[in-house]
Amino acid sequence: MNRTIPRLPDWTLLFVVTLTLAYFFLTHEGLYALDDYYYSRYAHQLLEGTFRLTPDPQGLLHDPLKERYLIFGPVAVFFKLFGLNIISATLWPLLTTLGCAGLIWRLYRRREPVVAAGAMLLLGLHYFTLNLTNYLYPDNVLMFWCLGSAAVLLRGREPGRRAGWWGAGFALLNLAALLSKETIVYYLPFYLGLMGLDAWHRRNGRFWLVAVGTGGLLLLGYLGLYQHHTGDALYRIHLIEHTNEFLKEGNYLVGNRAALLARVTWQPLAFFVGAGLGLMLVLAAVAVGRERTASPAADRPFWLLLAGCTLLLYWVGSTSLSSYNPITLLPRMTTPLLPPLALAAGFGLRRVVQEGGWRLWATGLLLLLLVVWLHNAVAVLYALPGLWLLAVTVGSRLRQWPRWLLPGAPALAGATVVVLALALAIRPVYFMRKPSVSEHFAQARLLRQHLQGPARGTVLVDDYLIGNYDFMYGFRVPAGLQYRRYWARDSVRLAPTEHAWLLLNRATLSNDELTRKLIRYSPDSVLSWYPRRRLLAQDGRVELYEVELGVRSEK
Fold this sequence. Notes:
Distance between the termini: 84 Å
Number of strands: 5
């Protein structure tokens, strides 16, 4: 039976990788978000040699996404290797997501197999971790650098390590994180506190000396680059502040002051529980306190303190240096918090199944209380492990209960990991079975087959596609084609040799996320505007019509 524990991380890693890949391909909605488009465009500019560091000379374009070079830089490499399409655009977030699971496996598969298995499941199968694999957002990329830098900080300070090399690697990984997204700064208070503690005890001096020295040189070079190209070494900070100023009407001090108290008290807890992070929070909480048997090195306190410090900044911190503006409570904003929280929860899971006692029943009870609080579909995530742990609590007091399922037995650890895996997999599998809400791939096929080079004229499209149709052509739209909104039907002028087409994506026009704000018409109303039409092709819920317009140019 003891053989099952060393292999537990291996089987868990295989399960996480398999489900992640299945989710990536089965739920991919294609080009769906604004960030996808902008990062892809910058990657294409890198390939074409047209990318410029300099800001807009008129000061009109303030886009912080352009400064995140390690988001679109690797994407440019994938475009070169596999062509410009949405799959190659999202390979980078997929690989970094899988890389997080691989790092946890490498860190703890031998030292702490239960911790490794639990943390891989909690991080890798967290729904929003999976959800961000098939969008070109910076969050999972940042999560990879955050986990990597924290792991190097932990291992590089151990006795017998080549501290100088580890210190340099620590600085490089943090720069990589900074070039991906600015919220790596949430780790800075923990870094400074740990450095101060090491200085107080006069230890790990070489690690910190090299880390600070290398980091200082990298930062000077980075700021010097901005000074050279923009005339402002702190351009990126000023850009972020300008963005906050632009959005100030919605923040908690100007346009939403009445909601500030709730935002810094109970709202974060409700948000974390509703987003499915209650399982990590409960397990991390039971990891606190002295263990009966000492944990290898100082790993458990390290991850607990890093998770606690980052959680505190999410709870009451600010995204602005000039005003108090707490971070938006969106699941994708939590990615720096997830690695330390998942690992702290992994240590909590090990204590629950190994020590039992009050931690066993308290964990089960807290999870069921979250079920009562939520009483919605997400509650299943808490119900299964909660019921299982309470069943073990009650069963372990019965004579008939199998001894191999008592606290401390390897089989209990394995069974609990299986229950966690089942609970965490329910939501991803549900979405893997749902139909597409964008029909991106069907739409791309119709454009590729019918609206290419020889075709000349105007393509009438919805208000969503009008902003990103050039992506479908690899940012090289055929010279003879122009795209216009449906509303422009009365202003289109066609030459005698030109045609007009209507592209109708029924999935887009019935998508709740778009129809609430952007799209104010239905497929039937669009068709009623074009009574003289002929269906040319249909792919799934996407239809292409040739239409006759009332006005033609004499030329």
